[in-house]
Design goal:
elongated; about 120 residues; single chain; about 60% strand; mainly beta; about 0% helix; four-stranded antiparallel beta sheet; seven-stranded mixed beta sheet
């Protein structure tokens, strides 16, 4: 079994910052793709940032220059540093990892989501 545990969401004022974390646990051999998605209220889930194990990160246009995704391969953890937050960034943020287990099975895992609210 593989689990993704997210943390770091909360309430922040416009212009503020938050850092989300997502740690994977289980019989993981290799994480192939890491990413963050979000679902604003009343809208569909959308991509925020994604990267493979060897590529640079791709960001959704509205977060470029404000959000930075990073990873700690040794800890199987991905982070999302969010700066200059805007009310339109309010959403449930989900972590996603596509990985190969030690059994060589492929898994597409999702976290349960963490709520980010940007409001004064």
């Amino acid at each position: 079994q593989v689990q993704l545990e997210e943390s770091g969401g909360g309430l922040v004022q416009p212009g503020g910052s938050l850092r989300l974390s997502c740690a994977a646990s289980g019989s993981i051999w290799r994480i192939n793709t890491m990413g963050w998605y979000r679902q604003p209220p009343g809208k569909q889930r959308e991509l925020v940032a994604t990267a493979t194990s060897t590529s640079s990160t791709n960001y959704e246009d509205s977060v470029k220059g404000r959000f930075t995704m990073s990873r700690d391969n040794a800890k199987n953890t991905v982070y999302l540093q969010m700066n200059s937050l805007k009310p339109e960034d309010t959403a449930i943020y989900y972590c996603n990892m596509r990985m190969t287990l030690r059994s060589f099975a492929s898994v597409d895992a999702w976290g349960k989501g963490t709520l980010v609210t940007v409001s004064s």
